[in-house]
């Protein structure tokens, strides 16, 4: 069995029963979509494994140590690049900006180019879901988020878009960029 096969099984087990926020779909579809997007750019098995594992530490009982032990140090590093310190001592609304700034700093300072490809897959999958919801509910979609200010959301997604711009030759980045522009065209930051 490949590292990717093992990662898919692990992610399916860890996300079992979870549903995607604001959608009535099994959560596992998101990490699988991220892997599919990443797969349009790279066939790197460790990167593909990290794509399906990217939310396991942040959103399940999986630990970074478990990821490293089962899938190796590079997969763990890639997953870590996508894992926020949720700061359990603070309400998510209060820690949102800090968490996003720290995440952007990780992305900016990434040494392995695979980090940016992983981020692109994740953020494109997220933007696709946001766009579907936005088409139905308009700016009301932000009311169900920890950060309800569309200007703050625009700041974050535009920052990600800019940090990933070296991938602009890929259709995935072009789609992400187009969705960011469509959704946040009326938002100043």
Describe this structure in words.
This protein is mainly alpha-helical and 189 residues long. It has a single domain (3-184), classed as Hypothetical protein af1432 (Orthogonal Bundle), CATH 1.10.3210. The protein is 65% helix and 0% strand. It is built from ten helices and no strands. It has helices at residues 3-14, 29-39, 45-53, 56-59, 64-71, 73-81, 92-108, 114-137, 150-163, 171-184. The termini are far apart.
Provide key terms for this protein:
189 residues, mainly alpha, Hypothetical protein af1432, 10 helices, 65% helix
Order of helices and strands: HHHHHHHHHH
Strand content: under 5%
Radius of gyration: 16 Å
Q: Overall mean pLDDT score? A: 93
CATH homologous superfamily name?
A: Hypothetical protein af1432
| Count of domains | 1
Q: Poorly predicted ranges (pLDDT <50, ≥5 residues)?
A: none
Do you know the CATH architecture?
Answer: Orthogonal Bundle
What is the CATH level 1 assignment?
Answer: Mainly Alpha
Q: How far apart are the first and last residues' alpha carbons, in Å?
A: 47 Å
DSSP summary, beta strand count? 0
- Outline: globular
Decide which structural class fits the backbone. Answer: mainly alpha
Number of helices, counting only DSSP H or I runs of 4 residues or more: 10
Which fold does the CATH topology refer to? Answer: Hypothetical protein af1432
What composes the largest sheet?
none
Helix coverage percent = 55-70%
List the helices and strands and how they pair.
Layout: H1 3-14, H2 29-39, H3 45-53, H4 56-59, H5 64-71, H6 73-81, H7 92-108, H8 114-137, H9 150-163, H10 171-184
